[in-house]
Structure formats: C-alpha cells, structure tokens
Amino acid sequence: MIPYGHQHINAEEIDAVVKILKGDWLTQGPVIAEFEKNVAAYCGARYAIAVSNGTAALHVAAMAIGLKNGDEGITSPNTFVASANCLVFRRAAPCFADIDPITYCIDPDEIKKAITPRTRVIIPVHFAGHPCEMEAIWEIALKKKLFVIEDAAHAIGTSWEDRKGVRHKVGSCSHSHLTIFSFHPVKTITTGQGGMILTNDEALADKCRLLCNHGIIRDPSNFVNPPSTVSHQRVYPPFYYEMQELGYNYRITDIQCALGLAQLKRLDQFVIRRREIWAYYNDALEGIEAFQTPIERKDTQSAWHLYAAQADERDELLRFLHDNGVGAHAMYIPVHLQPYYQRHFGYQKGDFPHSEAYFRKSIILPLYPSLTDAQVEYITNQVKRYYQN
Ligand SMILES: Cc1ncc(COP(=O)(O)O)c(C=O)c1O
User: Fold this and answer.
1) Which one, 21, 25, 50, 265, has the greatest CB density within 10 A?
2) Among candidates 387, 366, 362, which has minimal Cα distance to 101?
3) So where are the chain's domains?
4) Global pTM value
C-alpha cells in the first residue's frame, strides 16, 4: 500500500542522530538551541522554542497568552482536533468559523461573525499547507484586540505575498503573535515527534520556555526568593531553582533535534518535490468532472503537506484505491461533529456547512518527496480508471 504521507530520512540524518547517541547529551544539549536558531532564521522570526510535539506547542501558546476559563477562541472546524483542544485545555470555550470553500481554510468573514466580547484568540490553520488570509485576519485581530496563534502544523516552507507585494514566510509571525509547527513524520520535516513555537515577542518567548519546563527557572536574576535571602532555602547556589508557574514537561530531545536540524537543510528541496507532485496530480486529474482538484491562490507558494481534493462517490473511490494499493485518506472530520464537542459544547450537524460539505467529498492522495514519478502516475491512473468504469 502506498501511504498518504511518509518521512524521508537519508544517511546524513541517520549519522547526525547516531552522533548524538554516542555523545554526552541525549536530552537538553546544544543541538536543541541550534535547531531553534536555524528554524527561526529560516522563517524570519526572532524567537523559537522547540517542544515535544505540535499539540504541546499549541497548549503552551494558549497558556502563554493567558487564556483562561470564560474566554473564547475561534478556530477552523476543518482541522485536527488539537487546534481546538488547546482552547479546552485552558477551559476556554472552543468556537469555530467556517471555511472558505475554495481553499478549505478559515474564512475571515466567518471569523468576524463568530467574535463575541469574550473572544480572546483566533487560531487560523493553514490547511494542507495553503496559507490562510493572514492580512485580513490580522486586521480583525488588531481592531478587536485579539491574539493570533497560527497553527502551521502543515505549513513550514509556505510563503505568501501581501497586498503591497511583500513576501512573508509562514513562521515569521509577521501577522500573528505566535506560530506553531509540528514535526510528526507525515509533516514536511520531521523529528519523529516534535513541535515548535515561534514569536517575535520576547516576553511571550520567555513565558513559552518557562511553561515547557515545569514552570521552573534557573536564572538567578529572575529569582523571586534568592537563596541568600531565605534561610530555609539555603543551598549551594548552582542547585537552586524556582518553580514560578505551573508548567509541563514538554521538552524535546537532542536526538530529535539532530534529525530536525539535518531535515531543515532539505526543506526547500522537499517543498519543490511536493509542489511538483501536487501540480502533476492537478494537471492529470483536472478534466474529471466528478473530481475537484485543489486550488492555490494567486500570490501564495504552498509547501503542500496534503493533496486535498474533493470527489463524488468519495467512499467508493477510497475503497477502489485501497483495493488497488493506494492509501488515500479523507480529512478532516469537522471538529465540531466529534462526540466530545457535541456532548460538551452542543455543536450539531449543519453548524458549519462548508466544512461539512468539504469533508463529505474529501480525498487526500499520497504526497511526499520520496514518491517516484512512476508511483504518482500509477495513482493518477487509478483515479482515472475509477471514473472511467
Ligand atoms: C493542523 C494540526 N495542528 C496540530 C497538530 C498536532 O501536532 P502533533 O501531532 O505534533 O501533536 C496536527 C497534527 O497532525 C495538525 O495536523
């Protein structure tokens, strides 16, 4: 079976990981900082904090902005549950704004309708790698004094051009307070499990770092109770630390970051190949009336994590492809229709019709750099064969 997504690991990357395994630090060594620095430089953001996975990154970002019980946050129904769960982790109400039926990303006009006096944050999701309309979203956020956390789990390597013709890389946080990435193996670059938070705001960066590490600090200049001033805390100074917030162990390891650092060097190459395969599918499948190929908006350069199309007789096509060795997929089941969200927040079928209509026809064809031209041709031929029958 050809899977819908797959990592691509080369000998250099394996060597980089082995070098760490033979060295002194497995967890909190120097490679983490190097990976953070290089991702920040690649994206053009000032600060980057590597964490254990993308869900942890969302959770920490939601904590860092001070989200709390009674607040509301708005995200897309067409996403993995983690984008909304980070609101629930903070006891904030998860609210949704329907998608633009062309890009399948959150629609800024729908965001405007979903805003209430309790709204604190917008979490746009760059679905499949296609960037959301960040200029419009940022304007709304500035006007309404809201935070913006970009869920860019799918979109490292994506860029877009603003109305003045200036190009922005996803992750630069030029139109958001924080951006998160996921480095799960199906994503564009991987660390096994892993994630990252980017920001240009020093205070938010410090907060994120603190919250990923139990809320503990070791920097003497920030101690609340320096050991020299509190007798019961006297200890040989290097052993002293303070827990100042309730944080989590969301740290990543040097082993993972060695892989990520090496993968980052190939990111642009990966994006070129992903875009090539995406364009091949689009050209080859364009003429099939029952199959709607995806669209890339003018002025955007998507890293294309997913080839997300829509198909009539979707389930029959999925079955046919699986029977013929093609592990196509369908995603996302709209988050508001998950039993947990229906039970706790009263969402119902029909609440977000564009997301529901998209999912009914959603089909994700395999897309990753190591797919061969022959495999890509085979996959398109299977789709064509289904509709010819
Ligand atoms: C849109 C989106 N956000 C967040 C996540 C969570 O990332 P992770 O699996 O690294 O926790 C995912 C993972 O699939 C995702 O697709």
Assistant:
1) 50
2) 362
3) 11-97+104-216+245-265, 267-388
4) 0.97
